[in-house]
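INTERNAL AUDIT FORM
Audit reference: QA-55
Scope: verify that the stored structure record matches its stored sequence.
Auditor: D.O.
Record contents follow.
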Amino acid sequence: THDPNYPSAKPHLIARLIDGPFELDGKPIIPVPLLHGEMPILGFRFGDFAYCTDCSAVPPESMALLADLDVLVLDALRRRSHPTHFNLEQAVECAGRIRAKRTLFTHIAHELMHEPTNQELPDGMALAHDGLQLILDEAALGNAWQDAKAESTDHPFDPERARERKPAPARRPPPL
């Protein structure tokens, strides 16, 4: 039998409508309308940092919400087109329009080889990788950047450079 009062590891979820900016732990969060194919979804802006993944388009009306970013995390699935995700070319074009100081591409498939792809990307853009840490500045919520291009030559999941290693220690990157 099932005892509803028994503590378990199952999450207790509460659905909440997000229809505008809100606060989390006293910090302002701005929802950014995006598209996942034709389905509307949300990215989020935290100060000078924005997280916009699992998307295929940033509607024109959302571009103003992404102005003046220090760091943008953006979907870039693969080179080939996909109905619900940016491909790399689309992601680079979108990131170029947003003009964040730094852009990290995430939600990437295994067919994008890390180092060769990073070498092709414009300055200020790089593929994210497992274990990458961004340390958000309390004052600006976004003045942080772990240089993914510098770290990419030692990326443990690139088949061309795979090797056993200890994870790099977390470090506070210099301000942008």
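Auditor finding: record pair retrieved intact. The mean pLDDT is 80.
Action required: none
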